[in-house]
Amino acid sequence: MKRLTDAERDAALSTVPQWEYGALRGGVIRRVFVFADFTQAFAFMTQVAFHAEKADHHPEWANVYNRVDITLTTHDADGLSQRDVALAQVIDRIAEGMQR
Ligand code: H2B
């Protein structure tokens, strides 16, 4: 999987405007989700987990009660790849209507 060029990255990021780009580790995107409670947060995480496993692309994430903090990057590309953007799009769709 190859890392996106700066131009590809800018175009891709415009499809997931709620994700924040960071230069950390060659390029990452991050979004924090807040749900009504832990049950909602974990239901969201379960759906994301099933998708991630199918796609063999996995989030780095932390959960504290109703909050899920997600970072996406591609280790073997040393930065951001199309797979990160594709996963972010799916995560946004799953979260749609679930967030507090
Ligand atoms: N997920 C993410 N987000 N980035 C990766 O580089 C990655 C992954 N690599 N899931 C995959 C798994 C790799 O470790 C396995 C061995 O295919």
Automatic annotation (TrEMBL):
Catalytic activity: (4aS,6R)-4a-hydroxy-L-erythro-5,6,7,8-tetrahydrobiopterin = (6R)-L-erythro-6,7-dihydrobiopterin + H2O
UniProt keyword annotations, A-Z: Lyase
The family this protein is said to belong to: Belongs to the pterin-4-alpha-carbinolamine dehydratase family.
Name listed for the protein in its UniProt record: Putative pterin-4-alpha-carbinolamine dehydratase
Main enzyme class: lyase
Lineage: Bacteria, Pseudomonadati, Pseudomonadota, Betaproteobacteria, Burkholderiales
SUPFAM superfamilies: PCD-like
HAMAP family: Pterin_4_alpha
Protein's organism: Lampropedia puyangensis
